[in-house]
Design a protein that fits this description.
The chain is mainly β. It has a 5-stranded mixed beta barrel. Strand 5 and strand 6 form a beta hairpin. The radius of gyration is 21 Å and the shape is extended. The two termini are 40 Å apart.
Length: 153
Amino acid sequence: MINRVVLTGRLTRDPELKNTQSGLAVSTFTLAVNRQYTNSQGERGADFISCVIWRKAAENFCNFTSKGSLVGIDGRIQTRTYDGQNGQKVYVTEVVVDSFSLLESKKDRQNNASAGNNSTSYNSSNNSTSNAPQDPFSGSGDMIYITDDDLPF
């Protein structure tokens, strides 16, 4: 059987680190994952995926992420049930995170937040003050000369 989940999205709130009665670190968070297609009004929807992360990974996750952080996670889907306060069964489906990746630096995130932009953007203009490498293919149709020494094979 295969049960693998790989997601890329943004945290909807700051993750909160808790400890179980036995002392295990655990954190739950919600990941907002954009849908691939837009609706009839041209708006892109999102899915809000519940996730849980355990032990040292949970501690690291809480130390290095906050609301709006762009992260990639790898894990598995898990379902569980429990009896709620009103006596009804509560069904929970969540992703149990095995590993995560930080997909933008804190500086990039702060720049995007100050610009009012919630997604990573790449500057394709020819601004010489930009730290981003310039696109060598953005010319006006000029020929690009490549020698055999430029090729990796």
